[in-house]
Specification:
Helix content is 35%, strand content 15%.
């Protein structure tokens, strides 16, 4: 047996993709964006300053964008429900998440979404879902229409998520913006965040996988497997993502397998005091080390096509009040931008695989 054949056999035995498998091109290559105030977006941005700090997103160095998706993070769900007007919000929406910022990206072929929630606003999600989840869904849909964006659900309730309320939220959103397999309508893009693997946010993960992320009757477009508490090694990242593909049959209720075409994997570009190779050094990055796995990960009970949808990166500009930012001199052309070139990321984002 040749060395290549032996490697393929070992890879198959381990449940890993083999080198003989044709790689599936990445379709999603995006960044969460926290603005310049640790994800509150509480001030209207000067767009010249905004461009200085974020130009790498629209130009990897050769005039092409580094990403095909930006997710502005975060909208507080309770403020959105209540239509709060204060120094940082207008009708419940952070004043920095305005049309000028959206157009900055969409004018370069980059899709834009708004993320509702984040771990800071978990209790506000709980309150809003208890009060009036249908109205919250309607307001989210109206916001999507107003700005021409999609919506991401980031509900990080680990103990007892209000799944009945979240179902009502999704039903109300979908009544206004039905599922669109073509991806042509940006407002129809509705996604959800789950944990890096299947062992956290278990109730949400189980329900979403079983009811909203199936290939036979999709309700949500896809899920993002979020970053863990710190940047994982390549093997840990792959192990986490494999859990979604395999599901957890030993749980009660069981978490069913998730089709690779129904989720992305996530990595840090800035973490604490460190700028990660994801930002500055693609050759030595986890996304480079996991690229073959991500493009070849095979279905294991759900879906028919191999390969995750792509990568998401946490997070552009200033994700926390302390620590590094992705602003000059720590811009990410050499990491995310180089990865976009290496993976031939399509811009604009194409219609997503459905199975």
């Amino acid at each position: 047996m040749t060395a290549a054949g032996l490697l393929a056999l070992v890879g198959s035995a381990a449940g890993a993709p083999t080198s003989a498998t044709a790689a599936t091109p990445l379709q999603i290559y995006g960044a969460w964006h926290c603005g310049n105030d640790a994800c509150t977006w509480a001030t209207v941005r000067n767009m010249t300053d905004f461009d200085t700090n974020n130009h790498w997103l629209i130009d990897r160095g050769d005039g092409r964008p580094s990403v095909n998706l930006v997710v502005l993070s975060f909208v507080n769900p309770l403020r959105l429900l209540n239509g709060t007007n204060d120094s940082g919000d207008a009708n419940g929406v952070p004043v920095g998440m305005n049309q000028a910022v959206v157009n900055y990206f969409t004018s370069h072929g980059i899709r834009v979404m708004l993320s509702i929630g984040g771990i800071t606003y978990t209790s506000d999600w709980n309150t809003a879902l208890a009060q009036n989840p249908t109205l919250l869904g309607q307001k989210a849909a109206a916001l999507a229409s107003q700005l021409g964006v999609g919506i991401e659900i980031d509900y990080e309730e680990s103990s007892s998520p209000n799944l009945t309320g979240l179902q009502a939220f999704i039903d109300a959103y979908r009544a206004a913006h039905p599922y669109d397999a073509t991806g042509a309508d940006p407002t129809a893009r509705l996604t959800i965040d789950v944990a890096a693997g299947d062992r956290w946010l278990i109730g949400l993960d189980q329900y979403a996988t079983a009811n909203w992320l199936t290939t036979a009757k999709p309700v949500l477009d896809y899920a993002n497997a979020m970053v863990p508490s710190k940047q994982p090694s390549a093997s840990t990242a792959e192990s986490n993502w494999q859990e979604h593909i395999d599901g957890k049959s030993n749980y009660s209720p069981a978490i069913p397998p998730l089709a690779p075409a129904k989720f992305t994997g996530s990595l840090y570009i800035a973490e604490g005091s460190q700028v990660r190779p994801e930002c500055t050094d693609f050759a030595n990055s986890v996304q480079n080390s996991t690229g073959s796995w991500v493009q070849n990960a095979a279905p294991n009970g759900a879906g028919t096509t191999s390969g995750l949808l792509g990568y998401m990166f946490w997070a552009a500009e200033k994700p926390s009040t302390r620590g590094v930012t992705t602003t000059p001199p720590n811009t990410c052309e050499g990491g995310v931008g180089a990865g976009a070139t290496a993976y031939s990321v399509p811009i604009p984002m194409p219609a997503l695989r459905q199975g």
